[in-house]
Design a protein that fits this description.
This protein has 345 residues and is α+β, with helices and mostly antiparallel strands. It contains 11 helices and 12 strands. The protein has 2 domains: 160 residues, PurM-like, N-terminal domain (60s Ribosomal Protein L30, Chain: A, 2-Layer Sandwich), CATH 3.30.1330.10; 175 residues, Alpha-Beta Complex (Phosphoribosyl-aminoimidazole Synthetase, Chain A, domain 2). The model has no long low-confidence stretch (mean pLDDT 93).
Length: 345
């Protein structure tokens, strides 16, 4: 009887070791001084005592990139999807005012391809550098027989800190507060199951085609554009300004995510004419015959983050955001209501 080994079952320990060696430089480029050297150990360590925090709360967030990974697989472009993963996590942390400190990733893959994993980790590291946090650990799991060889899924986990007396409390929202929307030039990581359905049913559209007539990018490139990471900019704004609440516009769009931060006695009145929706959204809408309500329920529609600010802080916050190359607009106001979000003309 022929003896069995792990390799014959589809798992390559040698490829796994190769991946570990390849990712060391990417982890090093994200290093913060609070990280305790322990690469390759069973757990990662972070010395919060080396930071300047006096009474910190630790804040955690976890997320993935959804089926945007399928667009990466179809196009064979894996360099930027790791940036999306970091953005999804750290931009959740900053909604309570937390600074991202460190990040861990989890990659599940059908067959371990060291070059593919290296591209993914490189993007994650670039996202961590942009967010100011350290990539201190992760896991790459090979799943032969469970996933197709070229299939993969990404998940991330991030921890941040905020001084106890500086936590953003949504109870601070007041009647008449202004709603500032920070632009998102693309889909970020949400709505891709609908996107894939729309374009798989459109025989005359390919991801290799121009995104639209006259576009320099292909449709695939446009869909894969990495998410903006807002956390560092918002932390800078928080240092000098009163912010009553923050919402990260992910799955559920403006209606669901803004509703999460409203008090029971308030509605958010949002005027969709107050910003220009990026063309990629109208291309998806027309190709799939999707109505406006569904578009706003699924996609961010060009607004990646929302800040609720008192009226007397509005101009200053807008100026700071625009100086940091994060274009923003007043897109609505807080009105009396029952925790509803109205999308108005």
């Amino acid at each position: 009887m022929k003896s069995n080994d792990y390799l014959s079952s589809g798992v390559s320990l040698e490829a796994a070791r190769q991946v570990v060696e390849q990712i060391k430089p990417f982890s090093s480029m994200t290093r913060r001084p609070e990280v305790v050297d322990n690469f390759g150990g069973f757990a990662a360590m972070f010395d919060l005592g080396l930071s300047s925090y006096k009474d910190p709360l630790l804040v955690s967030a976890t997320d993935g990139v959804g089926t945007k990974s399928e667009i990466a697989k179809i196009t064979g472009r894996y360099e930027t999807i790791g940036i999306d993963l970091v953005a999804m996590c750290v931009d959740d942390l900053v909604c309570v005012g937390a600074e991202p400190l460190f990040f861990l990733d989890y990659i599940a893959i059908g067959h371990l391809n060291p070059e593919l994993v290296q591209s993914l980790i490189k993007g994650i590291a670039e996202g961590c550098v942009e967010a100011g946090c350290s990539l201190i650990g992760g896991e790459t799991a090979e799943h032969p027989g469970v996933m197709d060889d070229d299939s993969f899924d990404l998940a991330g986990f991030s921890v941040g800190a905020v001084e106890r007396n500086k936590v953003i409390e949504v109870s601070n929202i007041q009647l008449g507060d202004q709603i500032i929307g920070i632009e998102s030039p693309n889909l970020r990581s949400n709505g891709f199951s609908l996107v894939r359905k729309v374009f798989s049913e459109t025989a005359d559209r390919s991801l290799a085609d121009p995104a639209w007539e006259g576009a320099e990018s292909t449709l695939g490139e446009k869909l894969l554009e990495p998410s903006v990471i807002y956390a560092p900019t918002i932390l800078n704004v928080l240092n000098e300004n009163e912010i009553h609440a923050i919402a990260h516009i992910t799955g559920g769009g403006l209606p669901e995510n803004v509703a999460r931060i409203l008090g029971e006695a308030f509605d958010a009145a949002i005027h969709k004419s107050s910003w220009k929706t990026p063309r990629i959204f109208s291309e998806i809408q027309s190709a799939g015959a999707i109505d406006d309500e569904e578009m706003f329920r699924v996609f961010n529609m060009g607004i990646g983050m929302v800040l609720i600010v008192p009226p007397n802080a509005t101009d200053r916050v807008l100026d700071e955001l625009n100086k940091e190359k994060k274009p923003a607009h007043v897109i609505g106001e807080i009105v009396k209501g029952s925790r509803q979000v109205e999308i108005l003309g």
